[in-house]
Amino acid sequence: MTALPTPARVLVLLAAAAAVALPASGCGTSTASVEHGRVLFVEKCGTCHALAEAGTKAQIGPNLDHAFAAAREAGEGGETIEGVVEAQVEFPRPSTGDPAVSMPANVVEGQDLEDVAAYVGKWAGVPGAAPPEIPGGPGAQVFANNGCGGCHTLAESKAGGTVGPNLDEVLSGQSAAMVRESIVDPNKKIATGYPPNVMPSNFGQTLTPKELNDLVQYLVEATGGKAAPKGKPAGSKTKGG
């Protein structure tokens, strides 16, 4: 979803989309699932786009909250935003064939596209939107807030992403220090079969020390390791180590 429009163009596109989307909406007969759309968004779109409710922070493509904030403030509803999203997914602009500049067409299709569009239509640009609170402690919340489940499988969090390696497999038996390094310097050791430069390399800056510590401890425990001693940062080096 790299090529969604800038805020200045959104209002114009919304007006055009409204003429198509509203008559086709079936007066409330849509079968779109916002919940399923969120799962798909985190997995398929969150690797490029920031959206507060999804907990995604990628900056490859436009920040969708910023892109639709003006339209939301102007009173445009979810249905017209859905129309813009569907059109941009089906016919990305600009279309260059370079995924760093524009996304490929039909990242999601059919019912999946309707679900993603409904999700973005409900939450993009909504003031104060944030990921829902989840069980599992502060580390689980950091995992969810940062969209980790969109790229990784982790049984403990019921995450099934496949963009990156299965954390239950690659983190099993690793120390807290190794887990921490894989978060803050993901290109240092690349899992077999996965390309470099996919996972953001700035989590050491975007996460607070507490958030990073909570995340490391959560991942260590979730994959069968031992928690750090109480009062000791997870993954910190021992004296002389």
3D architecture notes:
The protein has 241 residues and is mainly alpha-helical. It folds into two domains: 7-123, Cytochrome Bc1 Complex, Chain D, domain 2; 138-222, Orthogonal Bundle (Cytochrome Bc1 Complex, Chain D, domain 2). It is built from ten helices and four strands. Strands 1-2 form a two-stranded antiparallel ribbon. Strands 3-4 form a two-stranded antiparallel ribbon. Strand 3 (153-154) and strand 4 form a beta hairpin. The longest helix is centred in the first third of the chain and has 18 residues, at 7-24. The radius of gyration is 19 Å and the shape is globular. Mean pLDDT is 81; it is low at 14-29 and 237-241.
| Named CATH topology of the largest domain | Cytochrome Bc1 Complex, Chain D, domain 2
Q: What's the SSE pattern?
A: HHEEHHHHEEHHHH
Tell me the strand order in the biggest sheet.
Answer: 1-2
Number of domains: 2
Query: Strand count, sense and closure of the main sheet?
Result: 2 strands, antiparallel
Form type: globular
Class from secondary-structure proportions: mainly alpha
- What is the average per-residue confidence, as pLDDT, rounded to a whole number? 81
Using the 3D structure, state the CATH architecture of the largest domain. Orthogonal Bundle
Number of strands: 4
Classified in CATH, the superfamily of the largest domain is Cytochrome c-like domain
> Gap between N and C termini, in Å?
44 Å
Residue share in helix: 40-55%
Which short descriptors sum up this protein?
Cytochrome Bc1 Complex, Chain D, domain 2, 4 strands, two-stranded antiparallel ribbon, 241 residues, 10 helices, mainly alpha, 2 domains
